[in-house]
Write a structure and sequence with these properties.
The protein is built from 24 helices and 23 strands. The longest helix is centred in the first third of the chain and has 56 residues. Strands 10-11-9-6-12-13-14-17-16-15 form a 10-stranded mixed sheet, sandwiched between helices. A 6-stranded parallel sheet has the order 20-19-18-21-22-23, sandwiched between helices. It has a 5-stranded antiparallel sheet with strand order 2-1-5-4-3, sandwiched between helices. Helix 11 links the parallel strand 12 and strand 13. The chain binds adenosine-5'-diphosphate-glucose (ADQ).
Length: 769
């Protein structure tokens, strides 16, 4: 049965039932009222005749009585009047009543016997009648006869029939309206939008770029939402297939999350995969009475998630959200992503003291400045080192616990927070393939040598089978440091360290961004987008520069501002024209050096603005807050140039994000020579950030570059970033790790083993259980 027919039928049935019930109630009420009315009328008429008829009857004046009866007998709806004597015999009637009087005999007897009026509705000869009988009395009060009034009651039934007819007519009119309205609603609100949506889906399927149709939000919202998701998944799959086909045609292959997924499944062959990082991929936070899940802006989550999804792995990280504890099971685990759980997140809890010593202290006041030669003196405190060791041991326990039951698991440890973890885990699980990726630079042996615990740090790292850095120079520095500090054999031919029968490979894996590859650049105008941003910032300007950084002294933000100041001094025609927007996320603000740095950056921007600012134009806009990826992308896409002037940086993802976002092949990248990214992007305008004149010159060059030259540079940089995206990074890292032959594969041991073994591995440290 067709949808509209079913809808009409259901509505018609409902309305008919309701109308019928209402009509029936109305008929009943009408009948009751009409009957009451007739009864009353009969009583009133009988009473008004009573006075005249009684003396005539008592005196036997039959002729006069007949005249009275005839006079009253022509009232409306009155069928006739009859008078009876005391014995109930008919004495007088109005004409043509003979056929009906018989119907009154019972009532006459009752009225005479009881001496009171009696009335009833009766059927006689197919007609409805109302008969009312009233006893007539002599002056003495004795009953001398009876008066009977016969009313025609047919009109009551006729009125009921009229009501039924009216109800039927209503039902018919409503039916017609229902059919019309239903057909219109179905056509406009259901069939029309569905047809539009089907058309749209068809266009999507055929690969067209049809805009989403205008459909009623309230009714079709969930459907439209799902279809939009489906369409974007389809588009993404098509894009990636197209890209892949195109690049295969060029003899290369683009890495996508799907390809990484398949690749990693093939490599792992069912072995468990584990990732350890300080920062967790999903943070539960309290917001009033509700809990929100936040995904930190991090390239690491983008890169690691497809791998963990591919092999249903486990991510072990510090539970840092204020609602994290309420969202784990008894083993401190939960399944993520929350919308579509596919892998496990194991949270490790740290006390305030542990966080202060391990994270803020040894990691960020010790190792961070030590590895970034940025002229901030590292601070090494024995108590921070102690906390750092304890936290590494705590994580090792969690990792070993999670690995229980897994054969030859693979472990990807992330960053300088876990230098001791590789050895701790390897000691407990020699069958595990252990890697650590060091996201920050590694300095030369002389610089690293000032760390009081350099041997312990190196010994911890060499527990890994694979140590990864962004670039070869960092690998070389690491090998030189090992050579200088430890009893070991550095194999320069294979970039490996052999120590106490264990081999550690040291390899570069330049990290990157996801880098979508769109053939067709999005239709948009840089000028319009730039004007929109200037308006939002309430600044009048023509040229836009952008910088995006955590507020960290290694990022060269102050040096960058000085370069801008010099540029405006040297080229005054850009005053009133060039504005630089610095997007700056607060970072590690509990550390005094960072708090001072925020002040320095703010003061420097105010000083330069104070010097040049004119009307609604200013040279520097400092936006000191965390921005979403989408907000940052708006600036990347509208800027004439992006300034990356780190004093030292492992890679620097901002440079690659800027390049990846410029599908219009416009915009210039000014890039510090001290970033890992500079090794991959020679088409950037590479500068020494300490050289203020050079930075100023690069800004002018970026703004005045021949457009064709600019496009060619951007095109080459984009090819590099797309081909070496973050999925390529993850695939290379895990591929290299999976290839390693484990020294002494043994069956995984029972859970009791780790604690004992870890204690031995930790040496002088006692493990807290
Ligand atoms: P970071 O020192 O954090 O990373 P970087 O590589 O530039 O530096 O990555 C910063 C990320 O944070 C970028 O994705 C950027 O978009 C984002 N970001 C910066 N400012 C922001 C803001 N105001 N709001 C929101 N997001 C902001 C470390 C090393 C690097 C190395 C990476 C990856 O120091 O050298 O490239 O790890 O290995």
């Amino acid at each position: 049965m067709r949808f509209s027919f079913r809808l009409i039928l259901s509505l018609a049935f409902g309305i008919t039932v309701v109308t019928f019930l209402f009509a029936r109630a109305q008929v009943r009420a009408e009948k009751r009222d009409l009957r009451n009315d007739l009864e009353k009328r009969a009583e009133v008429l009988a009473e008004s005749m009573e006075e005249t008829a009684e003396p005539l009857l008592a005196r036997g004046l039959r002729w006069e009585l007949q005249r009275v009866v005839d006079r009253f007998g022509n009232r409306e709806r009155l069928a006739g009047i009859a008078v009876y004597d005391r014995a109930g015999r008919l004495m007088i009637t109005t004409p043509r009543l003979d056929a009906l009087v018989g119907a009154a005999s019972g009532l006459v007897s009752q009225a005479l016997a009881q001496g009171s009026g009696r009335g009833d509705f009766v059927k006689s000869g197919g007609n409805d009648l109302h008969i009312y009988v009233m006893p007539l009395r002599a002056d003495s009060g004795a009953v001398v006869g009876a008066l009977a009034l016969f009313h025609d009651a047919d009109y009551i039934e006729a009125a009921s029939a009229g009501i039924w007819k009216e109800a039927l007519a209503h039902v018919l009119i409503q039916m017609v309206l229902i059919v019309l309205v239903t057909l219109l609603i179905v056509r406009w609100s259901v069939r029309g939008p569905i047809a539009k949506m089907a058309q749209w889906m068809k266009a999507q399927r055929a690969g067209g770029a049809a805009p989403q149709p205008d459909i009623p939000e309230d009714l079709f919202k969930p459907l439209a939402h799902e279809v939009t998701n489906l369409a974007s998944s389809l588009q993404a799959a098509r894009d990636s297939a197209e890209t892949e086909a195109r690049l295969r045609d060029l003899g290369e292959a683009m890495w996508t999350p799907e390809r990484l997924h398949v690749h990693v499944q093939g490599l792992l062959q069912g072995n468990g995969l584990y990732v350890v990082s300080n920062r967790e991929p999903y943070i539960h936070r309290r917001r009033g009475n509700a809990t929100e899940v936040m995904v930190p802006a991090s390239g690491l989550v983008t890169a690691m998630e497809p791998i963990l999804v591919a092999c249903a792995g486990t991510w072990i990280a510090n539970g840092s959200g204020d609602a994290d504890r309420e969202n784990v099971d008894a083993h401190d685990r939960l399944r993520v992503p929350p919308d579509q759980p596919q892998y496990a997140l194991r949270r490790v809890w740290l006390s305030r003291e542990e966080e202060a010593g391990y994270y803020l202290g040894f990691s960020n006041e010790g190792l961070w400045p030590l590895c970034h030669i940025a002229h901030t003196r590292p601070l090494f405190r024995a108590e921070d080192w102690q906390r750092y060791r304890e936290v590494n041991e705590k994580f090792a326990r969690a990792v070993v616990e999670e690995m229980a039951g897994a054969e030859e698991p693979l472990l990807l440890i992330q960053d300088y927070h876990f230098a001791l973890l590789p050895r701790l885990v390897k000691k407990a699980r020699p069958d595990a393939r252990v890697s650590i990726f060091w996201h920050i630079p590694w300095p030369n042996p002389q610089v690293f040598g000032i760390c009081p615990w350099q041997s312990e740090v190196l010994n911890g790292l060499l527990g890994a089978d694979l140590v990864g850095f962004h670039i070869q120079a960092h690998c070389n520095h690491f090998l030189e440091t090992v050579d200088a500090a430890l009893e070991s054999h550095v194999d320069w031919e294979h970039f490996a360290v052999d120590r106490r029968g264990h081999r550690t490979l040291v390899r570069p894996f330049p990290i990157s961004v996801a880098a979508e590859n769109r053939e067709q650049p999005a239709a948009r105008s840089v000028y319009v987008e730039r004007a929109k941003l200037f308006k939002r910032l309430d600044v009048e300007g023509a040229y836009l520069g952008v910088g995006v950084d955590r507020l960290d002294y290694t990022k060269g933000i102050v040096e960058r501002f000085r370069g801008i100041e010099r540029f405006l001094e040297l080229h005054p025609r850009y005053q009133g024209q060039f504005t630089f927007v610095q997007i700056a996320a607060p970072s590690r603000s509990e550390i005094p050096r960072y708090a001072r740095f925020v002040q320095e950056v703010t003061e420097e921007s105010e000083r330069i603005n104070g010097r040049f600012q004119k009307g609604k134009w200013k040279p520097i806009v400092l936006l000191r807050r965390h921005h979403s990826h989408a907000e940052i992308a708006e600036y990347y896409r509208a800027a004439d140039l992006c300034l990356v002037t780190s004093l030292h940086d492992g890679m620097n993802l901002v440079a690659k994000e800027f390049v990846a976002s410029r599908d219009d092949e416009q915009g210039a990248l000014i890039l510090s020579q001290f970033t890992g990214a500079a090794h991959e992007l020679p088409d950037a305008l590479v500068v020494n950030p300490y050289d203020t004149e050079q930075v100023a010159q690069a800004i002018r060059l970026a703004l005045e570059m021949d457009p064709e030259d600019g496009r060619a540079r951007m095109r080459r940089m984009r090819v590099r970033v797309q081909e070496h995206n973050v999925y390529h990074w993850a695939a290379s890292l895990i591929g290299a790790l999976a290839e390693i032959r484990v020294d002494h594969p043994i069956k995984p041991q029972a859970e009791v083993l780790p604690i004992r073994t870890l204690r031995a591995a930790a040496g002088q440290t006692s493990l807290r259980t």
